[in-house]
Amino acid sequence: MHIRDQIEANLQAAFKPVQLQVVDDSESHRGHAGWREGGETHFNVVIRADAFRDQSRLARHRAVHAALGAELVARIHALSLDIGA
After folding, report:
1. Which helix or strand (DSSP H or E) is residue 24 part of?
2. pTM score above 0.90
3. Rounded to the nearest 5 degrees, what angle is found at the Cα of 10, between the Cα atoms of 59 and 66?
4. Which end of the chain has the least Cβ crowding within 10 Å, N or C?
């Protein structure tokens, strides 16, 4: 399974978001640190879910990272998160 698909599946399962967009932005980082042939190194995620309603920004980021899991996060060089309720 592609990393993008894993990100999407994990976030869907954990938060049942009303909006979820996972974009592999790796190609625009070609030649930068962390980039590798084949991409799947840099991602932009927009997620909106009720689960984030009363959480601080830090708590939201921690929750997303926990849902993704340490093994998956370790395979990603850059993860941009836009999280809201």
Report:
1. strand 19-24
2. no
3. 30
4. N
